[in-house]
Specification:
NAD(P)-bd_dom_sf; single chain; globular; 9 helices; 327 residues; alpha/beta; 27% strand; seven-stranded mixed β-sheet; six-stranded parallel β-sheet
Length: 327
């Protein structure tokens, strides 16, 4: 198989040829059709997440067909299309796993971080953490749902059922979750980098009732805001945008330092909450609902060899929606 591999932080990914991986008893081997490029991949490459397994093949928005089954796998079939998300394995016996919070497992494995991911032509995955994807839709359009979509979905569950929702950072996750919010009949207020009129126009085209820079306040107070941009200074900014009792949901796995702010910014029962990973139930719920909503993913395809260019374009916001690698 061929892959783009990270050997050392702050270095470009390297094109390598490796032996085809063999699945363990509880694993499946997948021939990859597409893999989304996520901001978490940038955090891995930049060494902002602690204790990765190096060398590592990044990528955790994987769609492909099962090529080989492990000896214990009976729930899936060769040739079936599956999706592989960030959460790649849990211990299933710690407090969190036994209390419906496997996303907080004490001994997890994460795809593209502590086990090899999808910047490759082939990979192996724990069969218990693979989502059946059916045969409708193209691989490149489904791949971003496996993280950008799922994290947005979990953020939305934390944000509550308020009518007016703000989204800070209008990239892959926001352009998916705005479609869910509009389908639910809610109003969306989109915040981009100051002066990014193209992203603001993109947000309006997807149904945002207002779009502006992150240095602006919305025209009215919001019930909740979701921060997809990993920028700590947006936490107090978001608190100022929500009403009394409103929530600020931090959706990233990494964020720059949060500055100090006066207590009155938080007072009146405003809340700050974070989102970590996802559960398999999150995936089942969202992926079942996505076709009903009719989510359309805006993506920019890149050849697998061009993964470094895709990451750089993501870093500098050079495309709308999501980037997807095609082996």
């Amino acid at each position: 198989m061929f892959a783009m591999q990270l050997r050392q932080h702050h270095q470009p990914l390297e094109w390598v040829e490796l032996p085809d991986p063999e699945p363990g008893p509880d694993e499946i081997r997948i021939r990859i059709g597409a893999c989304g490029v996520c901001r978490t991949d940038l955090h891995v490459v930049d060494g902002e997440l602690a204790n990765p397994t190096l060398p590592i093949i990044p990528g955790h928005e994987i769609v492909g067909r099962i090529d080989k089954l492990g000896s214990n796998v009976t729930s899936l079939n060769v040739g079936e299309r599956v999706g592989i998300p960030w959460l790649g394995h849990t211990c299933e016996h710690c407090y969190y796993c036994t209390h419906g919070m496997e996303n907080l497992c004490d001994h997890p494995l994460f795809t593209g971080f502590t086990r090899n991911g999808g910047y490759a032509t082939m990979t192996v995955a724990d069969a218990r953490y693979a989502f059946p994807m059916g045969d409708k839709g193209e691989d490149k359009d489904l791949a971003p749902l496996l993280c950008a979509g799922l994290i947005g979905w979990r953020c939305l569950s934390k944000a509550g059922d308020g009518k007016k929702i703000g989204l800070y950072g209008f990239g892959a996750a926001a352009h998916i979750i705005i479609q869910v919010l509009r389908w639910q009949g809610r109003d969306v207020y989109a915040f981009t980098s100051p002066g990014d009129t193209e992203k603001q126009a993109f947000a309006r085209s997807l149904g945002a009732v207002w779009a502006g820079g992150s240095d602006e306040l919305p025209p009215e107070q919001l019930d909740a805001v979701i921060l997809f941009a990993p920028v700590g200074t947006l936490v107090p900014t978001g608190l100022k945008a929500v009403r009394k009792g409103g929530k600020v949901v931090c959706g990233g796995i990494h964020m720059s330092p949060i500055p100090s702010f006066s207590y009155d910014t938080l007072w009146e029962e405003r809340e700050i909450v974070s989102v970590a990973n996802l559960t398999r139930q999150d995936g089942l719920d969202f992926l079942k609902l996505a076709p009903e909503i009719g989510i359309r993913v805006t993506n920019t395809p890149y050849a697998l060899r061009d993964a470094n260019q895709a990451l750089d374009d993501l870093r500098h916001g050079r495309f709308e929606g999501a980037a997807v690698l095609i082996p």
